[in-house]
Amino acid sequence: MKTNNLGFPRIGSNRELKKASELYWSGQITADALLTVGKEIRLANWRLQSQAGIDLIPSNDFSFYDQVLDLSLTLGVIPEQYAAFAKENSVLDLYFAMARGAQKEGQDVVAMEMTKWFDTNYHYIVPEFTKDQEFKLFSNKIIDEYKEAKAAGFETKPVIIGPVSYLLLGKEKQEGFHSIDLIEKLLPVYFGILQKLQDEKVAYVQFDEPFLALNLTDVERAALVHTYTKINEKFPQIKIILANYFDCFGENLATALSLPVHTFHLDLVRCPLQLDDILESNLLAETTSLSLGVVDGRNIWKNDFKKSVALIQKAVDALGADRVLIAPSCSLIHSPCDLDLETNEATLTAEVKQWLAFAKQKINEVVVLRNLVSGEITDYDQALFEENTLANDNKKKATIIHNAAVKERVAAITTEDSQRNNPFSVRRQLQIDALQLPLFPTTTIGSFPQTPEVRSWRAKFKKGELSQEAYDGLIRKETEETIRFQEESGIDVLVHGEFERNDMVEYFGEQLDGFAFTKNGWVQSYGSRCVKPPVIYGDVSRPQPMTVKWAEFAQSLTPKWVKGMLTGPVTILQWSFVRNDQARSVTCTQIALAIRDEVVDLEKAGIKIIQIDEPAIREGLPLRKEEWATYLDWAIKAFRISASGVSDNTQIHTHMCYSEFNDIIENIAAMDADVITIECSRSQMELLDAFADFKYPNEIGPGVYDIHSPRVPSRQEMVDLLEKAAAVIPVDQLWVNPDCGLKTRHWDETKKALIEMVNAAKQMRVNAETTITV
User: Measuring CA to CA, which of 56, 67, 151, 774 is 20 to 30 A from 121?
Assistant: First the structure.
């Protein structure tokens, strides 16, 4: 019985990759220095897994930015807009330009579109395909990293996104074809990669085909059969592990089990019942193995060894131990690196810590589970089994998890709690009268740059090196300077800048009961952006106001309106590690009530515009369409509960980014936010089509510049985007704003971009007045 891992965190246990990448982008280290950091992380990861006892260790799971972008570069899928840049720059700089955009030495290219990786908070760079798309082997990364591992003494299993999933992850940049039509042109490049790996005597190759968890068409299923039949014909000696994760095979089960591969990987955390379906189907070939994903790769709770052993034993009894592999449910890039780094009990108590496992610990769980089932139990394994049993028992009995008052409040919710007093058509006129905003009102999404100084103040305050009074004084000064800049630049609806906040979820979790925190529990969101999700271990409630002090202070500085800034209940849920002993819908409703209390208090403090960000609404959508309605019902209701405690002339905003809205536009409208701001610049306003086709009734702010890129857009670029928006959305419904918060940007570029944004709005007002006059 073998142990198998699908992927390991590539950020480094101390975020070495983030730090090195940002130093390289700012010109402070060389490309060689950055490449060296990458190599050190890879070697450390291979060594850790080898020492733990993992048999099938992944390679090519490392990335300097994103694994989908890596594959696009490998396959030569480089949009034409980067051709000139590629001639004048290194492949590494081309790679980062595709991810982030670039402005250097007269060259100016925008970043490629970015969106969420299935239902996770990881973002990938969307491949772009044309009807006559050509593919070629442009990069040898897959082969090079296998050879690098082998030279270091590690036999690895290269991990590659499967050809069908790769095509389905992309976007057609022309009409008249479907990306899956390109499969015949794509396969020869995959064959070339496999030939090179075969020449290196690779034993196993892992193909990730996560689209097998989605609703596929007959054409897409046929493409899978064709692809893996051809691979098996050409490379029968390579053992192909076909990995599906995040859900069941569903109606794709028969197709999947017909594929001539060596091993199927199953996510038995998200879909434990599929093991019975497969074992009872009589469709599994007698020579095919199963990789059982029993250790949760998406959450941080300790595995329940007793339950997992029973599940594994069922497979062993049916197939034999030699046809069973033990694995995490999915790649561990969604988990923090190492629980051993959590040594501060003031941050994470021993009671909660005993229930957790990060990537390093999950690898050990995989090995222990193999030993427990195989009977090769050492004293160490036995001690871990007893410790695991005790921790899981303690969790069931823990008094800190349950709060009767919170449960009673959830049970008492009525329909009226999720309804505003009047429909938007009535509220809108009241808000127009109350707020007196111009056509094309300008605003930002909330945060402003958090400089090293701001972050150092927070660190010193937490260490006790700054008093509360001194810290507050520094934050007040930074807030006032930001308010003054916004006034001077002509922004209509201001924000306070959020300098007191570490993260849009962590900040709220720190002030809510039922949350715990880590010091080093970082996971990658995109590129160098890492987040540290809170841990929701118990019932959630708000003991006291969380944002009122700073919102009230900012509003006192200016006659202009200042938005109150909150994170919505679904996003707090999605971007936390959520308790697994209660339905997610119940936890989300608890959070919604806490946010509702904050919204009501902000209104009482004189804040007339309140933004409740929900960028994760679309992310939380189940992968299978038949499960959408249930999720959307409770998710939209949770948002409405959070927003519906205020009067009609208080304007509720929400924000969403990097999502496709077409399939859920009715549900977004059902949120009934007065204003929604969305990411639109990377897609050149394409995402706005869904709102236009639906005739979205409320106001909308399509982002006019990409804040995830360091480049400063021109006024004309933003005018061009706004004109595209005005062509499909009535001008009296349009707001002008960036794509997202400005926390990760620098002040110089932020000021330049926002001044251009205000000028673009002013030009649009003149254009609109001219049109009206004519």
Answer: 56
Q: What is the pLDDT of residue 773?
A: 45
Residue 390 lies in a domain: yes
Rg (CA), the chain: 26
DSSP, collapsed to helix, strand or coil, labels residue 748 as helix
Residues 622 and 491 in one domain: yes
Phi, psi at 497, each rounded to 5°? 100, -20
Q: Which residues contact 704 (CB under 8 A, 6 or more apart)?
A: 680, 681, 713, 718, 721, 722, 736, 737, 738, 739, 757, 760
Instruction: Give the tens place of pLDDT for each residue, 392-451.
Output: 999 999 999 999 999 999 999 999 999 999 999 999 999 999 999 999 999 999 899 998
> φ and ψ at 337, to 5 degrees?
-75, -50
Same domain for 388 and 412, yes or no, is no
The one-letter code for the residue type at 271 is C
Alpha-carbon distance of 755 to 749, in angstroms, equals 10
Give the active site residues. 708
Q: What is the largest CA-CA distance in the chain?
A: 87
Say if residue 340 is in the same domain as residue 440: no
The whole domain housing 183 covers 56-61+114-252
Report the b/e string of 694-714 with b at 16+ CB within 10 A: eebebbbbbbbbbbbbbbbbb
User: What residues form DSSP beta bridges with 157?
Assistant: 58
The verdict on 221 and 281 lying in the same domain is: no
Q: Domain check: are 667 and 697 in the same one?
A: yes
SS3 487: helix
**HEC assignment per residue over 581-605:** CCCHHHHHHHHHHHHHHHHHHHHHC
Question: What three-state secondary structure class fits 341?
Answer: helix
- The closest of 217, 220, 129 to 176, measured between CA atoms, is 129
Domain count, the chain: 3
Which portions of the chain are predicted below pLDDT 70? 658-660, 681-687, 771-774
Condensed to tens digits (0 to 9), the pLDDT of residues 316-373 reads: 999 999 999 999 999 999 999 999 999 999 889 999 999 999 999 999 999 999 999 9
pTM value is 0.91
Evaluate whether residue 516 is within a structural domain: yes
Residues 683 and 628 in one domain: yes
